[in-house]
Amino acid sequence: KKKKKKKKSEKIRRRLLGYRRRDVDARIAGMHAELTRRTEDLESEVGRLTEQLAASTTADEDLAFRATRRAVEAILREANTEAVGVLGGPVVS
Q1: Would the CA dihedral through 7, 10, 16, 21 be positive or negative?
Q2: Are 91 and 79 in contact (CB under 8 A)?
Q3: Which residues contact 47 (CB under 8 A, 6 or more apart)?
């Protein structure tokens, strides 16, 4: 009788361990799926930010080019004005 009871308790214990193992496996699978989803979200966000940075860099380069061009034009106008005053006619057109 004791042996039968021991077998029965062993069977119950194995069954419980099986349930726990399945529960742990399910939790691990859930965590893996969540990690995969978060990784994909982060990769998407990095891509979006990279595109924004590229667009901003292009816009900044364009603004810097325009500012440099305006500065050069102002210097040339000033040089032309000085040349008119000193030499009596425009030097730079």
Answers
A1: negative
A2: yes
A3: none
Q: Is 50 helix (H, G, I), strand (E, B) or coil?
A: helix
Tokens of 36: 């995969």
Amino acid letter for position 7: K
Q: Provide CB contacts within 8 A for 92, sequence distance 6+.
A: 76, 79, 80, 83
Token pair for residue 1?
A: 């009788």
- Quote the pLDDT of residue 86: 76
- Residue 74, amino acid: A
Q: Say what the pTM is.
A: 0.52
Low-confidence ranges of the chain (pLDDT < 70): 1-5, 88-93
